[in-house]
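Quick one: structure tokens for this chain, please?
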Amino acid sequence: MILPPATLGMLGGGQLGRFFVSAAHEMGYKVWVLDPDEHSPAGLIANRHLRADYDDVAALDEMAVNCAAITTEFENVPAATLERLARSVPVRPSATAVAVCQDRIGEKTFLAAHGLPHGPFAVIRTAEDIRAANAGLFPAVLKVARLGYDGKGQARVADCDEALAAFAGFDHEPCVLERMLSLDFEMSVVLVRDAEGHTRCFPTVENRHRNGILDVSIAPARATACQRDDAQGLAQRVAEKLGYVGTLAVEFFVSRGTLMVNEMAPRPHNSGHHTVDACVTSQYDQQVRALAGLPLGEARQHSPAVMVNLLGDLWFDGDRVAEPDWAVLHAVPGLRLHLYGKHAPRPGRKMGHFTVIGADGPTVLARAMAARAAIGIRDGA
């Protein structure tokens, strides 16, 4: 067990890392952040910000000497970096687990190998793989195997010819071709698992996306009790089969009533932001606990919650860049605004979020959607 005032390490300095730093500080720990961005939101509040690339040997060795344990806030940290650090300091989650989640081919192969429900797919490494794919996969979504997120590196394709054109547009990078499913809705489960295999699941969340980016999360999900419980059971199976230690998110499609695993994220997740305001222990508190070997906290949700993402588009009015009128949000009962301290807004960039909590789920949802419209978010925009 690693106790305060020990120093913990974080690879990655975005908003997820920032919340981790804040949680760790409140629990009495110091935190070092490694991130090449001088404006890193997590680096701004860390005890030390190492401005270096993730494969910088000198910076990694300095972290290994000074940090009692190290974790990550995003899945694209090179596995070799995690392996190097793990030779001398606990790294959670492991390089092996992260490697599965950071590559869609590895992820889909993992799901198939362990009998976890998933949609039909084909591994695409060459144009010939597309020509040989089952015609029943179309219409489909072609996704690059690595470094795709928030809808980037994806293309909807109606047939083989469109898939070949999209593959060329991705510079023939390895991909997965996934059959496009008829979706009832999407859900996710955020959980934490410790080194002894103890697991705590947060209540299942219902998610809505806009332009490939998470827009709204409703917690708990408006699904049947069986669907919510099944999602938690499947998420725990994923964590167990990965030998996972830390906070993990598992995303699900519900298609014609059938639950299927879509993706795994080896870190806290956007759809778990509400846990800061609506749960006894947040997903970031749990990340600290699992990393430090502390007993896991209670994941109980004490209030219905709705989280709304705030993207950089809100800062733009034609050619003019201006701060949104946050007063309209602060006037909403039960609303808490979280801004990430990012250096500059960009369209599609996650700049913050707000969470509305209350005693009644439908009332909370109505208030959140009214606040979403009042701050300027328009459907279809």
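The mean pLDDT is 95.
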